[in-house]
């Protein structure tokens, strides 16, 4: 035996329990030891004994089980001993969220025990309470409950607060059991009376009375099972069977006799139709009880009426029987059945609408049956033929599904948690629309609901835990973590590898956003309704807002992950994760629904409608009170990563991405030599190979990789590829359409500027017009020079042009009419002088008509502005601009906008994308690169990047450990052997940025000596030495705060060095200072702000993609200290970026490099020393710096 003594975290509910056998702790009443707390799982943990050793097992609880402060893994036993401390739920003291227990040795003194014998359900309650009162009360054994072999009933609470309280609880429990017994007795009595009435009647009642659960025939074929209840039986159709050809099914006649003493009616709550078609996901149709009852009654009446005529009703027939069953015939005998079969065979020639005459003097079936069930979601299954088809059609009217004649509708969505099943479209309209696509473009739809459900299951309390347990991430996924591979044998392994890593990255970004100083948006919303759909509780919410707050975007955005404070009817509050699925805004009018139930604050003129998804929880929400919602993180981009992995199955490049093939990735370049003064040999080879790949048929996938080291002209090559694709396009009907993507706005803006400046090249081709480029994204995140190419600006420009053209046309008509009026006015004077009354009347009539037309045109001119600003007009104009665009430029996240997907996912027009070109492909994670492949028309992908530079930024340390930051480019680069001669990766080998002295070490160390400098680049005059490493003596760096690592003396030297550079160089010379640490960056910025306010000081990561004439690097660390290491400075990619930012001069400041403890930096220092470019000086020197850095 062991003794458990403890209480809840806030001191409430103390208990003292002695365990003699296995016992379960949890919130459920079925647990042997129920615990009252919302933070305790229903079955939280289990105590069990084996070989005189007690074990504790966590039953996969939501908030965890802690033994001596360590969280136990789920379903793994841990031995416990006396004195151990156990905590249930997250470790927060003084709160009602956890229970704290201590394992103690039971005392051998006199004990007080309670034995409860569990009664049977149908027997009179028999409660036996045996209390052994101790002779002498001791503090340790005063309130003890012994749980023996007879388990405690669920209605008993094992917590006994005092001996006086024990007697009160025993009396109350006995009363509860007595009331339970009386209810069971009344239920049995009602069933007995109902069974007696059934034996007196025939027909359906006699069959039902035979045995509950037996099947009875249903009109139209099939059978039904009767579900017993205390009031009336319910009939649920389990299956239907089609009629056999050539056979006649007799119609079972239902007999219900009059019984005024006991009136019972048939209540059909639902009809389940079964078929062989794939699963159809249906939205529940909210209806009131009366409407639904009438619908079901009408359906049953139609079934029986049609069966009487033995007619199969098909969709589209207008002569359906519209009768109600007023009387029902007697119980059929053998002869009656034969007659029924004959009449059924004869009725084949009768009309569809004919109905047999009802037999009089029988009790009618009620026309309206009260509906017991209010659950809107139903399982629907049908099979072919007759009555089942009519049922499917009637059900389809309420589910908005078009049913083809004599075709199965298919099984319904199940309520199980298997949300990863793919729903197949069954709507004829949708199916016809998809069938318009070629077979290779007919795709499956994938949903991220399975992953979203896992995210919404996370506990908000984990955020509090993560602050105390920063090194231990919470159990956010059940799947094991797998390091990334170079190839994958199947898509499922690929998905199982990436899903847990994406979830870890999502959690880390949630924590970073939650802890950031940025203020999140908070909104009080009203819940108008909620419903359960596929494991989600979908909340329809409403809110109001000031127009000024709406302009400042202080609302909850679609795609936000939010903290939702649920308010139940029992006044309990619980904070959970919620996902903002949709958001609609409109102006508040007198007809706005929220005005009917809530008092809107003054000044609130914006009405917001939200749909928020949360994990389903068995709680009744209080819709009368407001709910607080706080957005903490924009979740949609990473959900799109999961969706991109799912949609990869539809892509022609799927197999090659899982396992790269040489034939798909090789560069097919013509053997004929071409020359072009605008490009070097490697650039021209990349352009020709890319154009050749794009010209291949759709069924031949191609994935090309172009490695572009710093300064080799990646953007120039990309623009050359696009120009060459349009110049050599073979189809004359329509030009090609190219999608260009990059992970950052800066990179895509640079490409947009280059394309816009070169857009007139297309005028010399067969298209005879400039290139049409559209930049997709948020205009406020674009460079000002590119906003004129943005979709919103183009829409505004086209609207203003159309408006001005329309106004000009109307004004011309008005001017012409006014001239006619003036002319006719003079004619009237002339005719009046001649006394020509007829012509006067004619001219006055024509003047009247012209004046009316002028008035009409002026009104049209006034209303033109409102018509042009219409939302639908703008939406159609956006779609038209995108269809006519030649090149669409977007970031990887923005390429999945709903407008783009609506045009390019299901459209068969020539506006489909022919290829995608991704710049900076090595700076994004692999799932991000897969986003453009959701457009299944793309079977050609061109990646341009450099795996030797910085990879993608990953927040999660767990994901980084498993190489989640590796790009698809880097995986393919290493898969094909790096710089081996057989690798299909094409490297641009000529750089036009750096002096050869700066390029020497990076070429040797990172590019296998293949990177060369363009001719005549070293002949550029410059007053500073091109390359120099300065060894500073006497500096010390402060690393007491890892977020603020800095070196004060080195910072002073860098400022003096910057002053010397400014004195030597021309004032137009651009100078940048690079440092790897944020602390040193702040220190340098503060010191330079007084004399040099506009100096570019940034980290290595911040300078990626940039270049300056002069670069000064401050490395901060002391490389001679072996006990502290050099941190992330050991990254070769980061060092490569730092060394390749300068055009003319690179100066590196290192503190004490006499004994460098890193091979990478040691090779850098040795290289500089061998070239006599290493200088040693004191950090306090100020005079003489000009002579130190000045060119000879």
TrEMBL record:
Gene3D superfamilies: 2.60.200.20, P-loop containing nucleotide triphosphate hydrolases. Keywords: ATP-binding, Coiled coil, Helicase, Hydrolase, Nucleotide-binding. GO terms for cellular component: chromosome; nuclear body. Residues 23-72 form the FHA domain. InterPro entries: DNA2/NAM7-like (IPR045055), DNA2/NAM7-like_C (IPR041679), DNA2/NAM7_AAA_11 (IPR041677), FHA_dom (IPR000253), P-loop_NTPase (IPR027417), SF1_C_Upf1 (IPR047187), SMAD_FHA_dom_sf (IPR008984). Residues 814-878 form a coiled coil. This is FHA domain-containing protein. It comes from Tetranychus urticae (Two-spotted spider mite).
């Amino acid at each position: 035996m062991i003794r458990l003594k403890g209480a809840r975290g806030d001191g409430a509910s103390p208990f003292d329990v002695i365990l003699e056998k296995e016992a379960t702790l949890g919130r459920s009443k079925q647990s042997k030891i129920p615990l009252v707390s919302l933070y305790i799982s229903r079955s939280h943990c289990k105590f069990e004994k084996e070989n005189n050793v007690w074990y504790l097992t966590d039953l996969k609880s939501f908030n965890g089980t802690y033994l001596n402060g360590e969280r136990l893994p789920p379903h793994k036993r841990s031995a416990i001993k006396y004195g151990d401390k156990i905590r249930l739920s997250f470790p927060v003291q003084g709160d009602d969220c956890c229970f704290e227990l201590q394992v103690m040795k039971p005392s051998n003194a006199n004990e007080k025990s309670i034995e409860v014998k569990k009664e049977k359900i149908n027997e009179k309650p028999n409660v036996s309470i045996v209390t052994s009162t101790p002779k002498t009360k001791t503090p340790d054994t005063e309130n003890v409950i012994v749980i023996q072999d007879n388990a405690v009933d669920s209605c008993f609470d094992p917590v006994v607060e005092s001996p006086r309280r024990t007697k009160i609880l025993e009396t109350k429990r006995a009363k509860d059991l007595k009331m339970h017994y009386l209810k069971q007795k009344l239920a049995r009595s009602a069933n007995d009376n109902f069974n007696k009435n059934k034996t007196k009647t025939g027909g359906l009642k006699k069959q039902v009375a035979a045995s509950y659960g037996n099947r009875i025939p249903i009109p139209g074929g099939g059978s039904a099972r009767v579900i017993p209840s205390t009031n009336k039986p319910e009939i649920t159709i389990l299956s239907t069977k089609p009629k056999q050809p050539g056979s006649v099914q007799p119609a079972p006649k239902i007999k219900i006799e009059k019984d005024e003493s006991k009136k019972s009616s048939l209540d059909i709550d639902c009809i389940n139709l079964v078929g062989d078609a794939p699963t159809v996901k249906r939205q529940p149709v909210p209806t009131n009880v009366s409407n639904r009852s009438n619908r079901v009654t009408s359906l049953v009446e139609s079934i029986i009426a049609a069966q009487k005529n033995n007619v199969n009703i098909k969709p589209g027939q207008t002569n359906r029987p519209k009768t109600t069953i007023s009387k029902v015939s007697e119980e059929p005998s053998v002869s009656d059945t034969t007659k029924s079969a004959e009449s059924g065979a004869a009725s084949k020639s009768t009309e569809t609408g004919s109905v047999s005459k009802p037999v009089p003097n029988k009790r009618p079936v009620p026309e309206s049956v009260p509906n017991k069930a209010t659950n809107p979601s139903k399982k629907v299954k049908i099979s072919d033929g007759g009555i089942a088809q009519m049922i499917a059609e009637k059900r389809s009217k309420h589910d908005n599904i078009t049913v083809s004649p004599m075709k199965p509708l298919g099984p319904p969505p199940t309520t199980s948690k298997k949300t990863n099943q793919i729903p197949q479209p069954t709507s004829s309209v949708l199916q016809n629309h998809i069938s318009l696509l070629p077979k290779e473009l007919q795709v499956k739809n994938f949903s991220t609901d399975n992953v979203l459900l896992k995210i919404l299951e996370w506990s908000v309390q984990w955020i509090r835990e993560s602050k105390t347990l920063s090194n231990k991430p919470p159990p956010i996924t059940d799947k094991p973590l797998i390091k990334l591979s170079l190839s994958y044998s199947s898509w499922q392994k690929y998905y199982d590898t990436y899903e847990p890593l994406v979830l870890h990255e999502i959690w880390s970004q949630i924590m970073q956003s939650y802890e950031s100083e940025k203020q999140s948006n908070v909104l009080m919303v009203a819940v108008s309704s909620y419903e359960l759909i596929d494991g989600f509780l979908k909340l329809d919410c409403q809110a109001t807002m000031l127009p000024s707050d709406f302009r400042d975007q202080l609302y909850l955005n679609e795609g936000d992950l939010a903290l939702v404070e649920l308010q139940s009817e029992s006044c309990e509050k619980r904070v959970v994760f919620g996902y903002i699925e949709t958001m609609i805004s409109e102006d508040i009018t007198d007809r706005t629904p929220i005005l009917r139930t809530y008092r809107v604050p003054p000044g609130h003129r914006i009405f917001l409608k939200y749909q928020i998804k949360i994990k389903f929880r068995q709680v009744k929400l209080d819709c009368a009170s407001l709910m607080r919602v706080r957005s903490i993180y924009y979740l949609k981009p990473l959900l799109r990563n999961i969706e991109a992995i799912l949609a990869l199955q539809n892509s022609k490049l799927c197999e090659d991405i899982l396992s790269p093939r040489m034939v798909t990735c090789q560069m097919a370049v013509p053997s004929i030599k071409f020359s072009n003064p605008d490009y070097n040999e490697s650039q021209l080879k990349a352009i020709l190979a890319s154009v050749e790949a794009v010209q291949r048929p759709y069924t031949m996938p191609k994935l090309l990789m172009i490695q572009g080291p710093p300064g080799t002209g990646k953007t120039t090559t990309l623009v050359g590829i696009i120009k060459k694709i349009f110049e050599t396009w073979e189809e004359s009907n329509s030009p090609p359409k190219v999608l260009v993507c990059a992970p950052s706005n800066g990179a895509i803006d640079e490409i947009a500027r280059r394309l816009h400046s070169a857009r007139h090249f297309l005028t010399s081709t067969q298209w005879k017009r400039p290139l049409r480029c559209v930049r997709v994204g948020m205009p406020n995140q674009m460079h000002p020079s590119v906003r004129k190419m943005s979709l919103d600006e183009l829409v505004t420009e086209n609207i203003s042009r159309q408006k001005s053209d329309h106004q000009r046309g109307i004004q011309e008509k008005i001017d012409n009419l006014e001239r006619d009026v003036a002319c006719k006015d003079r004619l009237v004077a002339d005719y009046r002088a001649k006394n020509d009354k007829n012509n006067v009347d004619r001219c006055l009539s024509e003047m009247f008509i012209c004046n009316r037309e002028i008035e009409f045109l002026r009104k049209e001119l006034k209303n033109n502005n409102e018509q042009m600003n219409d939302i639908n007009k703008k939406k159609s104009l956006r779609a038209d601009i995108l269809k006519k665009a030649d090149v669409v430029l977007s970031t990887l996240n923005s390429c999945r906008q709903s407008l783009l997907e609506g045009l390019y996912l299901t459209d068969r027009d020539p506006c489909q994308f022919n290829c995608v070109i991704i710049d900076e492909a090595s700076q994004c994670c692999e799932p991000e690169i897969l986003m453009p492949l959701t457009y299944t028309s793309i079977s050609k992908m061109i990646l341009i990047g450099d795996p030797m530079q910085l990879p993608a930024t990953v927040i999660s340390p767990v994901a980084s450990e498993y190489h989640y930051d590796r790009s698809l480019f880097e995986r393919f680069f290493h898969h094909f052997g790096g710089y081996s001669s057989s690798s299909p990766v094409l490297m641009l080998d000529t750089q036009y940025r750096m002096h050869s002295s700066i390029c020497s070490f990076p070429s040797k160390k990172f590019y296998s000596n293949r990177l060369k400098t363009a001719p005549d680049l070293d002949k550029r005059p410059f007053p500073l030495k091109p390359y120099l490493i300065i060894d500073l003596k006497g500096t010390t760096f402060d690393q007491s705060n890892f977020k603020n690592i800095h070196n004060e003396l080195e910072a002073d030297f860098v400022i003096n060095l910057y002053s010397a550079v400014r004195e030597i160089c021309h004032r137009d010379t651009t100078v940048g200072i690079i440092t790897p640490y944020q602390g040193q960056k702040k220190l340098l910025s503060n010191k330079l702000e007084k004399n040099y306010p506009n100096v570019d000081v940034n980290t290595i990561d911040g300078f990626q993609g940039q270049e300056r004439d002069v670069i000064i690097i401050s490395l901060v660390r002391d490389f001679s200290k072996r006990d502290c290491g050099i941190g992330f400075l050991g990254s070769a990619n980061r060092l490569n970026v730092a060394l390749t930012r300068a055009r003319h001069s690179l100066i590196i400041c290192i503190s004490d490099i006499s004994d460098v403890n890193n091979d990478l930096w040691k090779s850098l220092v040795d290289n500089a020393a061998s070239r006599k470019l290493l200088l040693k000086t004191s950090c306090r020197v100020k005079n003489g710096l000009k002579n130190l850095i000045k060119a000879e």
